[in-house]
Amino acid sequence: MLSQLHSVFSTHTLIERELSTLIDQGILRKLILRGSIEPGPSGQATSSGSDVGLILSSTYVALLSSHSPLFDNFTYWIKDAGRTAVGISHAGLVEHGIHDGEINKLIEMGFLVIQHERGGADEGYSISVPGVGGFVRSLRGGRKELLRALKRQKYKEMLEKVL
Predict the structure, then answer these.
(1) What stretches of the chain show up as alpha helix (H) in DSSP?
(2) Does pTM surpass 0.90?
(3) Residue 52: its pLDDT value, please?
(4) How far apart are CA 2 and CA 56, in angstroms?
């Protein structure tokens, strides 16, 4: 996760520059972990403040390839033009030769997530990883527990070794 890198290293600009280079070269892939924050006032989780996950591109393509040979067009797009994308519109997918049946299967398998907060008439999708929901649920639970522990402290602070 990008937030972990930012918590370990103090040079955020260097981290972003290096990640950008690795993403452009197709070595890493950036994912938005939807639902990793508390829901907004309307009850929906918004994309602002969502955590950014990182995965090796080779691992992502291997996951994609192992699930189904039906995703050939999507796999080709991910390796080439879509290697830097974290989201895409429905029209953009269709433009790259990915038909509606393949899109529906990708959503079912967890490789695409519908973006609900996206404005406009065109439906949009976020690139995702199957099974990420359990990770996000655990992440949210851990953060809530950490906040509860801090609230129990007199001065709302703890030593790092106590955590």
Answers:
(1) 2-8, 12-24, 57-67, 72-79, 90-95, 100-109, 132-152
(2) no
(3) 83
(4) 13
